Target: FMN-binding protein
Amino acid sequence: MKKIITVMIATITLLAMVLDVFFLFFYTPQKTTAATASTATPAHTVAKTTAYKDGTYLGTDASYQYGAIQVQITVANGKITQVKTVKYPTDSHHTAAINAQALPVYEKAAVSAQSAHFSNISGATETWHGFQASLKNALSQAG
Model:
């Protein structure tokens, strides 16, 4: 009986590891079409009533578990038009892979939300904390 339970646990663990590797490195979500995107409202979008000052603002280095992240924002006509991650850790393959997938999503979410209030990606929470801290600093300079 103990051998059966051990084999079952090992099998489940192996399956979980295989799925994790697949979703981390190989799975890319399908993009929505223009017709679908125009009717859908992102859940993370928050109405922003205060206009930002036009310009380019560089957030401070925000340290987190795997290094530091620094974000730069561009504001035009009182709205965030671009968010760019100018510094992020690439020391390990795992960290680089997570950042390569998560940071572009976070950049788009920040522009869409017009703030630092948006959801994180599962598996990239630490990256989100660093990104959000630097973004908040840049927004405070613009606000």
User: Anything to note?
Assistant: The beta strands are 55-58, 62-64, 67-76, 79-87.
